[in-house]
Amino acid sequence: MLEAFAAGCPVVPSHVGSLPEVCGNAACFVYDPESIDEITAAFDLLVHNVPFREQLKVRGFKQVKQFSWKHSAQRYLAVYNDLLSTQ
Length: 87
Known about the structure:
The protein is mostly helical and 87 residues long. The protein has a single domain (2-85), classed as Rossmann fold (3-Layer(aba) Sandwich), CATH 3.40.50. The chain has 5 helices and no strands. The chain has helices at residues 2-6, 19-23, 36-48, 50-64, 69-85. The protein is elongated and about 55 Å long. It starts with a helix and ends with a helix. The relative contact order is 0.16.
């Protein structure tokens, strides 16, 4: 999802697992990942609703900025430091 956001591509994920957390409000979600009708409707919306598609593109660029290796490393370091300080 993040690579698609960085490339300016809208995505159609389902509400399964961590995808809602990763995608935030930058995706056109489907609730049933096995529903062909729901997935088709989502893609149809993205194809025909240009303003919505462009809005998701902008949101995707913002969403991907919340995830970086530097940020992840800082969070791991904070956890490690916390663990070391309690020993």
